[in-house]
């Protein structure tokens, strides 16, 4: 009986989280819509950070984090299919991951922000398959 009560509570929490997530999406979409009315929509972008550890999204349980990342990747691919503009991804991509993301049409471009900060010559290092400095 205790297990059933816990499962019922889990569904209740999931429903509340779903409503909260819809509200977060609505907020971002309203900002994008208002911005597009003021300037050319081709000049408007939005950054989504599904793997970032803030706003209570972090998880110290590696198994749960791996599941969250897999679900986020599936959601990212769904956004990619629905979006017809230039789609740029970032977040821990190495050279091979970036090539694969573009080759499999998961993205048009890959941003290597932290790697680029630690390696200002990043394109040359990629070209030479040279080791990268770790970012701090």
TrEMBL record:
Ranges for domain NADH:flavin oxidoreductase/NADH oxidase N-terminal come to 20-61, 71-132
Q: Which family does it belong to?
A: Belongs to the NADH:flavin oxidoreductase/NADH oxidase family.
Q: Which UniProt keywords apply?
A: Flavoprotein, FMN, NADP
Keyword Ligase part of the UniProt annotation: no
Q: Which cofactor does it need?
A: FMN
Upper classification of the source organism reads: Eukaryota, Viridiplantae, Streptophyta, Embryophyta, Tracheophyta
Coiled-coil spans are none
Name the species this protein comes from.
Xanthoceras sorbifolium
Task: List, alphabetically, the Pfam families matched.
Answer: Oxidored_FMN (PF00724)
Q: What is this protein called?
A: NADH:flavin oxidoreductase/NADH oxidase N-terminal domain-containing protein
